[in-house]
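Two quick folds needed for the group meeting slides. Do the first one here.
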Amino acid sequence: MQVTELLAEGLKREYRVVLPAAELDAKANERLNEMKDKVRLNGFRPGKVPVAHLKRMYGKSVLAEVIDQAVNEANGQIVEEHGFKLALQPKIELPQDEGAVNEVLEGKADLSYTVGLEVLPSIELGDFKSIELDKPVLAVTDAEVDEMVNRIAEGNRPYSAKEGAAENGDRVTVAFVGTIDGEKFEGGSGEDIPVVIGSNTFIPGFEEQLVGIKADETRTVNVTFPENYQAANLAGKAASFEVTAKTIEAPGEVKLDDEFAKTLGMDSLDALKEQVKSRIAQEHNAQSRAKVKRKLLDVLDTMHQFDVPPTLAEQEFEGIWGSVTSEMEQQKRTFEDEGTTQEAARADYETIAKRRVRLGLVLAEIGEKNDIQVSDDEVTRAVVERARQFPGQEQQVWEFYRKNAQALASLRAPIFEEKVVDFLLELAKVKEVPVTREELYAEDEADKAEAGKDEAEKA
């Protein structure tokens, strides 16, 4: 085998490999000799088929198998001799000329091909014990618990039919059809939708215009979607709804006591409050971890600056960009609507893609160097948890992950990432800093960018 380096640029390598015809022929003959004792052909006793006859019949197909194996072995030898860690599978370019291919398959010419490699960079890990992080923490207050319990009570308040016009606090079940500039829009229609007047759960101004409506009455409700409305294609737009009231119901009394708690499956009101407190604490802790993790990733990115494999970065970018542009097309928005240009947005998302690849490589290197692994039991628990999210379809979900290695890897990856983050937080100097609820749940620019990137990745 002859190997000639053609390219060594950054993380890209390219080699020309020549496999002599004599070596390939010898391996093919060896394979044919093995076949001789196994092949059954009419006119020949078992084990007595001449190799020359086998070569006439199966020579090309056997040589093709030999070539495939020889190419893989040659590529593996190049990788091993240079100590490469590959970012992607080798890109092999075999001869395309039919005449040249036939000469190789007939054993008349050497096989010459090129192989392109994209290798992982050598990563020198930083001193994680030198990392200093502030972790925002927020204790659960009695006021928070009482507010949540009151919301639960409000959501379980009984209603009974009433005669006459709807008043503030009444529940009106409605059907509606919305239009913008006379045209219906997606998500603008509904049937049998309960609206509690004064709950502020609908578009500002919608509930107030239902005051005085009676059963079977139809009226027009005019509203304007908020500027920060979640559906960007509706944000800030004026809409008109034709609303028909089907039923009017008056609210009943809810008494916060042990009996009420028992209707929710709790032993007592105190037990309900304890569960609510625990749930709020979990939300605070999750938000706190998300923020300290974001700071940790920022520090890791700063500590480890290196070139990333171009193709990995390109693949990451294409995934994000495709999702972003698809979503914008669905919402009929342009980059100008977002206060930017397509060129500037591409540059931003290319930076995000490179950061994601870089951090992924760093986390993988940390995990490998410190023997951080995800057990099969942990993956199984993740599959079970995912199956529980689809009541009635648990078996189908289980079978999907059992048969789909890529889907299973998508569950393993975040578990691995969280374990590496836990490992790093143990080494880092983490200082707990008490904050207000507003501070803990404030969304800074980095959070917004990360949220947008995550949404793109989900899509």
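Then this one, please, same format:
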Amino acid sequence: MQPDTKKGSCCSPSRSAGADTPLAAPIATGGKRIPDDAVHIPGGRSFTGTSRPEIPDDGEDPVRNTRVKPFRIGATTVTNAQFAAFISETGYVTEAERFGWSFVFWMQVPEGLGPTLGVKDVEWWRRVDGANWRDINGPGTMDAVWKPDHPVVQMSWNDAQAYAKWAGGRLPTEAEWEHAARGGLGDVRFPWGDREPDDADFQPCNIWQGDFPKTNSAKDGFVTTAPARHYEPNGYGLYNVVGNVWEWTADAYRIKSLKKHVRQRLATMKGYKLSKGGSFLCHVSYCYRYRIAARSGTSPDSTTTHQGFRVVWPE
């Protein structure tokens, strides 16, 4: 029996259902640290959502017309090297480090670690003590896993906010993110158009190939993250907008719905923040959320091996 695409989720488990966690220390804004490859995104009339929803209960539709001001956005998500520079200058301690543990996908849990706790209904997510942005999969894994040009992961929304403030920028709104992700195209599903990635001969982004969560053929060349600058960029020059890692936005996770079961679900998600783009764990058979209009909500203190972010700067 195939999992239900409408309900299935490989998205980030939540560490808590509470409100924002205070930052470990105030982060001073030190002027705009805009990367040389930051992309100019023209403003004007735009839209959020889609007229062709796949998971309506996530709030993918209807299309909402909007207007965005011009802005700059990172061509890639923030990399390990960029985040390391932030840590070096500020001494910031991430939330995974302060909590002392984080979530790791079951295939990446180090051998010999011993029993780990899973998350109810998504048991492939395991609590691993000592997992953080350096030791991504747990203690002693940095040398084997951490790569400077890959997206920084194990990022909470609060961590992303702290970095963005230090860089003189902020997280994108959902409208800005979708506007940039479409690369000048219209109501398309993906940054390159509407052609669906598959497990055989078309892999334009880093997602799962095979039988989730059991078997990943890695047909696209990656079992976990790909370099932040990989695959063909979209029409605006942005890399890995979908797939690879989920990207935090500035927005709260909200859905306008009259459905009772949706409202009941949202009642358990107060304070959650919106992520966009999907990750290397998404697949059409289960978590079809690597589409531009797809959405996911997670508590702001939650961290996983597939959660990152990119920064925007007003013009």
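Slide caption for protein two: Confidence is low (pLDDT under 50) at residues 1-7, 17-24.
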